[in-house]
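Hi L., both proteins are below.
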Amino acid sequence: MEFKELIAGFAAKYGIQGLDGADGVAELYVEGFRVELLDDPQTQSIFACVEIGLPPPDANGAFGEMMLKANFLLRATEGATLCQNPETNAYAVVRPFPQALTDVESFAAGLESLVNHAENWRKVLAGLREAESAQSAAQEVDDSHHDMLSSGYFHV
């Protein structure tokens, strides 16, 4: 099914106003996630992209390593790819839908799966941020304690 037809059918079935895909791009919001849909005539696929958040300032590559391992054979990503958007620097979950095999119902099910998957990865990323924040706070306390000891306020 062609991109424009699929988007029109999807919009009609779910009552989404203003979703047309006439220029090969469409955008919708599902459960608080912005989903970008892009037509790629070269691969005859429709790509759905959901950003899950910016990288933590100092995650020491932990999330990147998780992404690489999850992408292996696409088993832990349900057919999607975890990546980083070079334009926004945000991490994203991207999934292709082959146009020849895609109808409105399978597309809707695939988008639902993708959004659920993005939500799970957003939680993982948030967990890394929280751990990093806690580690940073502990380091600040340790640094403050060290400063007091070295400044002569306290003698050990």
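That was the first. Here is the second:
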Amino acid sequence: MFRKTTFQSGLRLVTEKLEGTKAVTVLVLVGAGSRYENQELRGISHFLEHMFFKGAERFTDTKEVSEAIDSVGGEFNAFTGKEYAGYYVKVASENLEVACDVLADMLINSKFKQEEIEKERGVILEEYNMYQDTPMYQIGWNFENLVFGDQPLGWDQIGTKELIRSVNHDDFVKYKAKLYTPDNTVIAVVGNVDHKQVVELIGKYFEMEAGEKAYEFKAIENMDGGKLYLKEKKTEQAHIAVGFPGYKEDHKDHWALKLLSVILGGNMSSRMFLGVREAKGLSYYIHTSTDNYMDGGVIVTNAGVDLLRIDEAIEGVINEYRRVKEENVPAAELKKAKSYLKGKMVLSLEDSEEFAHLLAKYELLHGTVRDPEEIMKLIDKVTVEDVRRVAEDLFQEDKMKLAVIGPYDDRERFLKLLKY
């Protein structure tokens, strides 16, 4: 059972004791994702994530940060999402204090030296180029831009080349001061740990300056970036994303939509996989997924398809959306999807890192932690009628959107396919 402590500064700590593991994860989540940016600052959240590893007070450069974790056989990494950024260290339980020491020094005392910024520009520009050259990654961002349009939620986290080439020390200091505040930070510690001991360690190392989050991200304004994104690119395989706007994070049908995405394309026995890949040989990879944010979301099917049969592949995906909208999902199929979703959750929560992410995310975004058992009960409550209602609500022809990357330049060809 999780436990929570809120420090006088406003910093929140949640812990979960897992007796069956000798590992522990310390994860810090901060409400400072790319949604908090404006056009001039596009990419600063992600660049800042990189800079935290470049040296602070106790660990003065990247080598010292790395060696501190490597010397105890630990793992560490970071990520930037749209609504938060995360930093974690995973170590053997006896090295918990090392993890707290390194993370606290990085996040509280980083120097953002200008010479380190100059070196990191090249690294991030190469990361930018990697995404541009990897359609499997890029297609997802293209689709979200179709759904959310030209606003922070519709932008990718990597940002613009202009920002990457121009951001400096003062920009990082100002941005960090506005968002990396104790009230906007949650620490999750999961493993074979004692809550009281963890409270003492966090209190010792995470002495954050008093301060409050300077601003909230802007709510979605105009949720539409068009029906079709077409990028002409010479490829050996076409990449498509077909889908619709979805639901926000706390929507009453959140779990019905998750189950619907499993039924459509969540695994190797799903409808998209069997109908489009296996039966017709139209794609290599194909999967349906959802992304849920605080005030919006998407459901989308991504696939890598035969260049010469792309029309047939798109029609095949759309047909599966139509079928689930017009016909009830058999009770046995829904039951299988529930078992799959709950089973995946159980497996993921064997990993202290995944468990920490679950706890910290709910605490940061919703102000309360949700127990896995509670989530499973919500999954079990979903009915065949709920799934049908969600499909009818979301899978409307006029809301259908398509992103394509491949050697094509005929927009009308693809626009004509967007119908049942």
